[in-house]
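Good morning,

Both structures are done.
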Amino acid sequence: MTPIIIGILILIVILFFVITYNLLVQSRNKVKEAFSTMDVYLKKRYDLIPSLVEVVKGYAGHETETLQKVTQMRGGMQDGDLNRVIDGEMKIGDALKSLLVVVEAYPDLKANTNFLDLQKRLSKMEEEIAFSRRYYNGSVRGYNNLCQMFPWNLVASIFGFKALPMYAVDSEQERKVVNVKFS
């Protein structure tokens, strides 16, 4: 009778490890999918940025520092590394805000149909990026819960599953209240 009980306990432990490992793999793959989705939207936005910069250059050619900053930010982020993308994404968001501040000084530019179309596309892209960030963070939360909560954390640590970073606002500028003024 005792060997049967020991055999059942061993089988239960093995099943626990197999099921938990598979949950961790499934959750990690969901995070990768979420990151990939976010990355697709970010690349679409990066592809839109040169057109936006070119239109603004036509009106505000002397604002080259801001325009170069936006272009440089776009160029250095497309390597797919999670931490670099999150960090770079914050920087490019700030650079785009600087670009839109430059636009405010040029009423003719704000009325330009090409610019208005690009601005509308950029706005839609920002909404899609925000949605994909929420999806990514939800996936990371589920994965991190598995990696950090008992008893799953035991299996996670044995097999090298580590918590992943959330996409969070890191810039003080992002947290500031925006003053909107209508002329």
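Second structure follows.
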Amino acid sequence: MNISIFTKRHPLLTYFVLTFAISWGGFLMVVGGPGGFPGTKEQFETVLPIAVMVMLVGPAVAGILLNGLVYGRASLREVLSRLLKWRVGARWYAAALLIAPLLMTVVGLALSLLSTEFLPGILTVTDKAPILLSGIAAGLTTVLEELGWTGFAVPRLRLRYGVFATGLIVGVLWGVWHFLVKIWMSGALGLAPFLVVDLFTAVLN
């Protein structure tokens, strides 16, 4: 069985494998680099934004590639039209944008009662502009993810499963997909706020 036939028979499996391969492989290549892995926190923070951007390319490339290979150009046009179409009122878009950061803040504040390591950075620095700008930029760049998750995976899963099952499958895999960058950013203990948000997102999806 050649790759083309396998891809058409198992498009979802191919999408998830390709997404993880591109994202995690690209992340490790950028973080590792020719000089090896960063030895200090400052060195790591320098390459992290680039590594995250490379990671975000994974779902987009996998989604676009598989839509074209499996379903043709018409599928690519359909994905583009869905990106540009407003399906609900502005308040729902505001809720989608604000729920995750607000939940992260609440969880971080709650956990900060146990350790100050969980205290949100925006509350501890004097110059808040860089954090706000980087947060907004990160939020905008995550649109790239949706070319794969909701542009390819969700519609195919909905052909077999209901809304809850589809949301749970995509939400859990989406959370695992973030696992590598969260480990690097926060360590094992720092995963706690992210895991709460991932579980919440899995249910909402």
